[in-house]
Structure formats: C-alpha cells, structure tokens
Predict the structure.
Amino acid sequence: MNSKTETKIALSLRNLKKSFGEKEVHRGVSLDLHEGEILGLFGGSGSGKSVILRSIIGLETPDEGQILFEGRDLVPLTERELFKVRTQISYVFQNGALFDSLTVEENLAYPLRAHTQLSISEIRIKVNEVLEMVDMKGANRLLPNELSGGMQKRAGFARAIILQPKVILFDEPTAGLDPVNTGRLLQNILSFKKRGMTAIFVTHDIPAAFEICDRVGILNQGRIELVMPVEEMKNSSHVLVRSFTTGAHIR
C-alpha cells in the first residue's frame, strides 16, 4: 500500500460515542481507513470492536460523532438511505449469516436481485464467477447446512463482494475455523487485496491479521489508543501491543 499521504481516505470515524444503558462502550473513537488498505482492529472481548462495524453499516446508531463516507455523514441517515449505502459498504458476518432456506446460488443472487437490473442469466454468470474466486465452484445448489464451517464463511465472503463494494467490514472471519480453512479463507481475502480491496478486519486472530493487514489499530477503554503499520507492530515493545502479540506465533 502507498503511504498515508498518497492515498485517499475511504472512511473516517470521528469521535464516536456509544453507551448501552450505563455501560459506556465508545468514548470517542476516531479512525481513518485509507483506500486500498486492510486495517486490522484489535481489542479485548467486549471492547466494542463489532459495535464499530455495526455502527458503520447502520445496525447501531452512535450517541455522538460522525461516520464519513464519500463526503457524507452516515449516522443520521434513514433506513431507506442506508439501503443504498450497503451496496457500497458490505459486512462479512462472523457466522456467514446465510439464509438457511436458500441455496448458495440463491444467497449470492439475493443482493444482485435487490440492487441491480441484471437478467437471470447474467446473475447466474456473476454467481459462478464469484464462487470460483472463493474456491467453491459447483457448490451452487448446496444449502447452508450442507456446507462445512469454512465453506459457510467463504460463501458469506462471496456474497459480501458480489456487488463490488468500496469497503468491506470483516467481523471475526476466522473465528471457529481450523488452520486449513483459516488459510484458505485468508488466501481468498489476499487475492482480493491484490485488486485493491479496502477493508476493516476485526479479529482476535493476531497471526491472521498480521498476514493480511497493512495497519492495525487497538481499541482500548473506549478509544483507538494507537494505530501502526503491521511490520512496526510486530517489533513493538509498547505494553498494549505486547499484551496482544505475546505468544501469538507471529511470522
């Protein structure tokens, strides 16, 4: 990735604050995501990493702050306005979030039917192209309960990229996967990274993040405490960084 001074900002979080009852989750989260980078996000359990992603996509509403995308603040948008935004910012849910009653092909075709004017044959061609990209060629007629955990994650990723969004939000994509399926999913993500994918990668999987991310931010006590390039973070002696990386078998 180019240096920050040479790349445009794809998405900006400005002083986000969010509480659930008396529990203050975000106390002023600010973060810039640059075009063409994968930005990792670390934080302890319950620190609000997923809440950041859900806020970006409009599934949660911050109490204060701005989420700026293409010169527009997403926070005050209506559900109707967010419907259009979600064609440009997609979400890869931790469990794949496939529709149980639909086949893999029908799951992938769903956003194309909802947001494009493609014909049935054009949709089928697009679905087949994307399935091949994620090593699932021929899985069209399988139902989600017929897929392995790894295949469910890759199908969820395929559905997230099928509209060619400008930003992808990954919520713990490798959680629950064995090393083989983790490696396969990461290779799929890396293949799209080479094409300039812009993404936020929320994870507890430190080696996975270091394999695919350009920079990593750490969410601590309701704020982004630091952001640094992966290579710098690997060798950092910062106490907060070491709390995540110690014993993580970093390559």
Confidence is low (pLDDT under 50) at residues 1-5. The beta strands are 9-20, 23-34, 38-43, 64-69, 72-73, 89-92, 167-171, 199-202, 215-220, 223-229.
